[in-house]
């Protein structure tokens, strides 16, 4: 006797939401296809596909998450695949959600760490989506710190009525289990690890230790977040986790994994909110703005910088104010908006001038000094094709910048080379470009390589000139 196939149950949840959203079957299919394109997916759904879903067929792969996001955008409230009566999966959209609670934030970022740690190559191929910037930045701006982040029993011992202390069962010294108490020493360790990986990234590029950082987050940070802690330790724990997650995004950005980096930045923003650290949240938005600049999304870069400014107001030190304005200037420069970019640079310069040696500056903003501001000026003037000013500021940045910031110095050297080229100084431009190419060959940084390639594209009109032939020979010798 042959077994009859299981009868599919009509998806009433999906039908109700389609009616609420006012979609036709064809309209829903079209929106899913469009959202797929944002993520680099070539989907070919039509009204017949939606009819099958309504009859109970489960769409495969990443589609359930994409359908849920279509409804989230339309209805203005967070909806998951389960809310639509669909099977959840490991979606391409996972990681762009701005969690409603700290618990949900841990689940989302923990899942991201585990997938990335597992060397899922497809995760690093996910496309950057400008549309994915809107909801998280808005939710951060209008949101506030969570009322409560503590969990479990943070006490090391319990004292019962008889007065005899009961010591919790000790776990192995080398393993951290769920519910284990988190200490100040644990958080200090997270901070120290952050400094180590930051130094490696600055000097050698994001590709050198990125995977080790992600594994550390999976095996050390996530168990801590699922441990036991009170409010004060909990806020500090979320702040440290936000910093490491932003750094994981930064190193992903540096190797060209832009969709993955975007997801890390969004989750770092949510962890910063759980930490109650508004200023650090603004710094994460600044990081997102830098990525948008690099990818040529000037309008989104400006919006992110302005959201960051609005979110902290005047409640941050002058150095941070200068950072926020300089990043806005970069966005305007990409758009060719001379007056707006210049005005933002002036605000950045004035803010830094008011900084005093005794100011309390957050650890994450201490890199922003005269050298960095000169770098921002140089990049902005280059993008605005104001080459003489670009060269002056790039030279000043290189004079002031510490050798430890090797990748930043490389970027600035390419800006100077491009400015010299724009001024018609071909010999100097090629010499500077060759120096930068040599440095890029020593790093594991896709951005470093792309900076050099951008310079080479600018050389194309002069490809038959002797200095350019010499440049090509030097680069070819690097292998």
Q: From N to C, what is the helix and strand string?
A: HHHHHHHHHHHHHHHHHHHH
Please count the helical segments. Answer: 20
Overall number of structural domains: 4
Radius of gyration: 25 Å
Structural class: mainly alpha
Q: Please, what is the average pLDDT?
A: 89
Contiguous low-pLDDT stretches (5 residues minimum) are 1-6, 156-174
| Overall number of strands | 0
* Percentage of residues in strands: under 5%
Q: What's the end-to-end separation, in Å?
A: 68 Å
Apparent shape: globular
Helical proportion, percent range: 55-70%
The largest sheet is:
none
Defining key terms:
479 residues; mainly alpha; 63% helix; disordered N terminus
Give an overview of the whole structure.
It is a single chain. This protein has 479 residues and is an all-alpha fold. The chain has four domains: 12-84; 100-151 and 177-276, no CATH class; 280-368, no CATH class; 397-479, no CATH class. It is built from 20 helices and no strands. α2 crosses α3 and α8 (210-225) packs antiparallel against α9. The longest helix is centred in the middle third of the chain and has 24 residues, at 231-254.
């Amino acid at each position: 006797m042959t077994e009859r196939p299981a009868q599919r149950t009509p998806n009433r949840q999906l039908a109700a939401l389609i009616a609420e959203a006012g979609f036709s079957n064809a309209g829903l299919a079209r929106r899913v296809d469009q959202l797929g394109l944002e993520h680099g997916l070539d989907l070919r759904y039509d009204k017949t596909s939606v009819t099958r879903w309504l009859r109970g067929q489960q769409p495969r792969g990443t589609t359930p998450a994409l359908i849920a996001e279509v409804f989230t955008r339309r209805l203005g409230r967070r909806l998951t695949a389960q809310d639509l009566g669909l099977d959840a999966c490991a979606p391409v959209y996972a990681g762009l959600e701005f969690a409603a609670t700290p618990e949900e934030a841990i689940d989302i970022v923990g899942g991201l760490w585990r997938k990335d740690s597992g060397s899922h190559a497809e995760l690093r191929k996910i496309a950057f989506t400008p549309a994915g910037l809107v909801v998280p930045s808005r939710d951060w701006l209008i949101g506030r710190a969570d009322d409560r982040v503590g969990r479990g029993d943070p006490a090391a011992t319990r004292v019962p009525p008889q007065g005899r202390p009961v010591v919790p069962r000790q776990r192995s010294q080398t393993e951290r289990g769920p519910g284990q108490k988190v200490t100040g020493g644990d958080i200090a360790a997270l901070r120290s690890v952050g400094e180590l990986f930051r130094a490696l990234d600055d000097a050698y590029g994001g590709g050198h230790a990125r995977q080790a950082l992600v594994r550390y987050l999976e095996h050390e940070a996530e168990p801590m977040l699922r441990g036991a802690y009170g409010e004060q330790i909990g806020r500090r724990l979320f702040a440290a986790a936000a910093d490491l997650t932003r750094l994981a995004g930064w190193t992903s950005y540096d190797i060209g994994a832009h969709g993955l980096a975007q997801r890390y930045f969004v989750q770092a923003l949510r962890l910063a909110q759980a930490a109650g650290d508004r200023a650090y949240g603004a710094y994460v938005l600044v990081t997102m703005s830098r990525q948008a600049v690099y990818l040529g999304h000037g309008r989104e870069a400006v919006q992110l910088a302005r959201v960051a400014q609005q979110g902290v107001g005047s409640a941050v030190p002058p150095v941070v104010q200068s950072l926020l304005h300089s990043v806005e200037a970069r966005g305007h420069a990409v758009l060719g908006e001379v007056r707006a970019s210049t005005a933002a640079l002036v605000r950045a310069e004035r803010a830094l001038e008011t900084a005093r040696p005794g100011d309390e500056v957050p650890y994450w903003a201490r890199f922003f000094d005269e050298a960095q501001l000169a770098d921002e000026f140089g990049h902005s003037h280059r993008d605005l094709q104001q080459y003489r000013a670009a060269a002056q500021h790039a030279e000043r940045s290189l004079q002031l910048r510490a050798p430890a910031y090797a990748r930043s110095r490389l970027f600035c050297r390419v800006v100077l080379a491009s400015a010299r080229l724009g001024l018609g100084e071909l010999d100097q431009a090629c010499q500077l470009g060759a120096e930068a190419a040599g440095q890029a060959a020593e790093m594991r940084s896709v951005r470093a390589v792309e900076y050099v390639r951008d310079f080479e594209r600018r050389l194309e009109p002069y490809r038959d000139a002797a200095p350019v032939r010499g440049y090509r020979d030097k680069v070819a010798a690097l292998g």
